Amino acid sequence: MKNIIIVSKCLRVSPYSSEENSYYFHFKGVFAGDLLKEVILHGRKDFGIKRGEEYLIYVQMKEMKNGTLWGKILKIRPLEECWDRS
């Protein structure tokens, strides 16, 4: 599987299993030549991902089908923590 980096805003969080959630992220545009409408990722509940927040996400891509990219979150960090505010 291919690993990619995504910068996006979380739109929705829903339970997936006892240890993981499904996270729906905003994306409008083209990726690898295909029109992409949304990103749905599975990841641990303890990541603490919140709806409405922006994130820098390291993702293991699983599939891209019908405008949706599916994957697994390997690492994630809130976007506001990724730059120096001084």
Order of SSEs? EEEEE
What is the 3D form? globular
CATH topology: OB fold (Dihydrolipoamide Acetyltransferase, E2P)
Number of helices: 0
**How many strands in all?**
5
CATH superfamily descriptor:
Nucleic acid-binding proteins
Give me the Rg, rounded. Answer: 13 Å
Strand order of the largest sheet: 1-2-3-5-4
The CATH architecture comes to Beta Barrel
Kindly give the count of domains: 1
Q: Outline the low-pLDDT stretches.
A: none
**Strand coverage percent:** over 45%
Biggest pleated-sheet summary: 5 strands, mixed, barrel
- Helical content (DSSP H or I, runs of 4+): under 10%
The termini sit apart by 38 Å
Structural class: mainly beta
**Average pLDDT, all residues:** 92
Protein architecture, described:
With 86 residues, the protein is mostly beta strands. Helices cover 0% and strands 69% of the residues. It has one domain (3-80): OB fold (Dihydrolipoamide Acetyltransferase, E2P) (Beta Barrel). It contains no helices and 5 strands. A 5-stranded mixed β-barrel has the order 1-2-3-5-4. Strand 2 (20-31) and strand 3 (34-44) form a beta hairpin. It starts with a strand and ends in an 8-residue tail after the last strand.
